[in-house]
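Customer escalation, tier 2.

The customer says the design service returned an amino acid string that "doesn't look like it belongs to this structure." They asked us to rerun it and document both sides in this ticket. The original structure tokens are below, unchanged.
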């Protein structure tokens, strides 16, 4: 896939912003619904796990959540395209495409770790640019969402029944990764790159004050709300990445490739609070 050129947040076309605002509440609602579906399977002793050809796991929870998301999107926006992790792509005619990861962090999910998330985004198809994103962490009761030009908004203890107040999300103000927290989802992914990047991982680990594998979508939410300064993935699919860029940018941070390109199509990702980006790219660029 050719990497589309990203627009500056200040120059997003008005029609993109209108499309994002039209879809944002629905995106948030159906993501919360998908989270409730996955919670019915979470820590179930009878949960059955299958392994796909790419050696990644899938469960009935992944499949049920994506089926629900697709059904709900078609109810409200039947002309939009849909691309999800578990089922074939549905072409659309509206110029907008929903990107779905019903469970980001299936491995934590299947082991009962409450850091998995449900990810939903919408892309403007011609440019490939994401115009909104939602991260829902149903086991911890946290959500964060953003539409371009509208800020990023965090809710703790909300869910379908409400109860949690929305607050403006903002990245941390730390200027030096040496004082900050570096997160990643899978250390092995650094080794699995075409050019072994194990030393890149160790360089980031040695630079940061603290490093942990509180990864997947939850790690990116931590950067967006200021609880971490850096999250890095060595390998990503578009359904892992699409919702992250609008959330990080609207929270005042960055989402880029390892070389610093602001795109969700690079097959990799770096989220920062903006202040440490240059420091991080000095380690990752060219790897």
């Amino acid at each position: 896939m050719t990497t589309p050129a990203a627009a500056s947040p200040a120059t997003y076309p008005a029609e993109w912003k209108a499309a994002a605002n039209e879809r944002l509440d629905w995106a948030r609602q159906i993501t919360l619904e998908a989270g409730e579906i996955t919670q019915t399977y979470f820590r179930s002793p009878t949960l059955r796990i299958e392994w796909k050809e790419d050696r990644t796991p899938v469960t009935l929870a992944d499949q049920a959540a994506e089926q629900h998301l697709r059904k709900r999107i078609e109810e409200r926006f039947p002309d939009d395209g849909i691309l999800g992790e578990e089922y074939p792509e549905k072409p659309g005619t509206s110029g907008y495409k929903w990107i779905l990861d019903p469970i980001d962090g299936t491995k934590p999910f299947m082991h009962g770790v409450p850091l998995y998330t449900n990810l939903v985004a919408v892309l403007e198809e011609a440019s490939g640019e994401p115009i909104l994103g939602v991260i829902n962490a149903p086991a911890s009761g946290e959500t964060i969402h953003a539409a371009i030009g509208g800020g990023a908004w965090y809710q703790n203890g909300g869910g379908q029944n409400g109860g949690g107040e929305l607050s403006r999300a903002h990245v941390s103000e730390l200027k030096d990764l040496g004082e900050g927290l570096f997160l990643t989802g899978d250390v092995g992914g650094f080794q699995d790159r075409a050019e072994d990047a194990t030393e890149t991982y160790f360089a980031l680990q040695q630079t940061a004050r603290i490093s942990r594998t509180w990864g997947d979508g939850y790690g990116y939410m931590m950067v967006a709300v200021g609880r971490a300064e850096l999250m890095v993935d060595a390998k990503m699919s578009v359904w892992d990445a699409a919702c992250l860029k609008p959330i990080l940018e609207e929270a005042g941070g960055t989402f880029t490739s390892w070389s610093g390109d602001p795109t969700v199509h690079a097959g990799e990702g770096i989220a920062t609070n903006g202040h440490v980006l240059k420091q991080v790219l000095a380690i990752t660029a060219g790897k």
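Tier 2 assessment: The sequence is consistent with the input. Residues 9-168 form a domain with the Fructose-1,6-Bisphosphatase; Chain A, domain 1 fold (CATH 3.30.540.10). The longest strand covers residues 96-104. Sent an explanation to the customer and offered a walkthrough call.
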